[in-house]
Amino acid sequence: xxxxxxxxxxxxxxxxxxxxxxxxxxxxxxxxxxxxxxxxxxxxxxxxxxxxxxxxxxxxxxxxxxxxxxxxxxxxxxxxxxxxxxxxxxxxxxxxxxxxxxxxxxxxxxxxxxxxxxxxxxxxxxxxxxxxxxxxxxxxxxxxxxxxxxxxxxxxxxxxxxxxxxxxxxxxxxxxxxxxxxxxxxxxxxxxxxxxxxxxxxxxxxxxxxxxxxxxxxxxxxxxxxxxxxxxxxxxxxxxxxxxxxxxxxxxxxxxxxxxxxxxxxxxxxxxxxxxxxxxxxxxxxxxxxxxxxxxxxxxxxxxxxxxxxxxxxxxxxxxxxxxxxxxxxxxxxxxxxxxxxxxxxxxxxxxxxxxxxxxxxxxxxxxxxxxxxxxxxxxxxxxxxxxxxxxxxxxxxxxxxxxxxxxxxxxxxxxxxxxxxxxxx
Length: 426
Prior knowledge:
Helix content is 25%, strand content 24%. By secondary structure, the chain is α/β, with parallel strands linked by helices. It starts with 10 loop residues before the first strand and ends in a 15-residue tail after the last helix.
């Protein structure tokens, strides 16, 4: 596990899960193709699954606190007993393996460690912690069972190789699909060098996000809004357009749950947003970023800067900010995930130009009639050309239905065994 982010080489490695219930695809460097012995094919006893499941439960405790790092959990077992466990709690803090060793109630020499991600083995100028492999070797861990390799090319099989060289048994692939699911934003950002993009919409049954007068509070109930605040806490940044700032004056903060405050990103090509907006005047204004096509010499550009707002000029695309450039700027600021909350024009742009990875759509049992559509014109002329989400799920939250699905570029992380082929050495 590591902070450094470099591109993953374009090699596809097919990996079978321990439980044989699913098969997933992960992009890996070519070096791993020669290391397929990492994948275990033996039937596992229930206790192996139990310990890895516990490690996954620990890992998600770091959700919203460790980005741009992945969430990782670790459990140490000796003589059939858990003697230590831990997880990566905060970015810059000790990794899961180190916390598990530190929390052990007895010597971990000869013990088996269950870990949700391959231990890091590298040191770089930007990395904040020493290699975890050094601690495993020093403490004489006997065996390591891992859910998945780390796609970070600084690690990506090298950690396994180093541990084997020091006599530690290594097995990988146990509950791999589950490990991939919890770290979808990390995996995407590592592989594509751009943030994972989630579009969030809240609409009426007839697809409206506001009445014809612009009134929108509230289409969904407090249960749905609490879920949205939880997602905000888990993502690095929340993004809206200038129309949303003008019409709604949102705070875009985390209030209904405990969690860290995300960056707040405004796409405002002409800097039309009022200077007194909450985003520019509240206690979190230093976490607000505005992207415009106007030069830094513009008076409103300088006014925002004087209020402590980060303002950046980007390329113009049809008199609007060039969104791909914005996403690259965010990535350079260590933003690996972005929650796009609207409004309609922003959602339409992200969808039309295929700049999103996932959609969360809250549908309320309310009918508005004439009003503002959730999504504008996508220039779809035939039904077979309409956007179809992959791996869709449905969940009732309060009085709403939450429909979630992935774009084609993100669905590769979540394929079922019916969509993939298992390639495995005998």
